[in-house]
Hints:
Radius of gyration: 20 Å
CATH superfamily: Lipid/polyisoprenoid-binding, YceI-like
Structural class: mainly beta
Shape: elongated
Distance between the termini: 36 Å
CATH class: Mainly Beta
Strand order of the largest sheet: 1-4-5-7-8-9-10-11
Number of helices: 2
Number of strands: 11
Amino acid sequence: MKTLWLYSLFILPLAGNLQASCWQTGEKLDPVWFTASQTGAPIQGNFSAYKGTLCLPDGERSGSASVEIETASIDMGLPEFNAEMRGPLFFDSQRWPTASFAADQIEAQGGDAYRVTGTLTMRDISKPVTTVLTLTRQGEILQVSGEITLSRLAFDIGTGEWADTQWVGDQVTITLANTLIPAG
């Protein structure tokens, strides 16, 4: 009886705090949205096929994350736009079927904010990037949201006639909002 009392006093409260420290994308994905500008007007699109993992820092190791997006999953709402974006002047999805991000540092910033630093690779061009994500635990799942603005030209997205920013602006904002499940 004394053992049961000690168990309920010390061990059971700890069990409620045991939660996953690593999560992954599930089967149902919310799109990764992006906003660019075409002749000065905003234009949106998204990527619907991707996978990723995220591990929070735990005192012994830095956090880490990885995301791989299938570039052919781009959708801008019109078949002719989609074909152009998958083609050699933009993502060249046949040659480079994925864009990837690998975070090597995740730092708590207070509250649900985390500074994420890593390398973004598109069209075989890798660049360091940093953003702040909001990571909110809800039971076993993790809600992830945030955005980052990038230069498309830094990754050779839109070459040839499309490199002229008069037609397509250089800055692209990527918006992420998804639910991750415990990795396993």
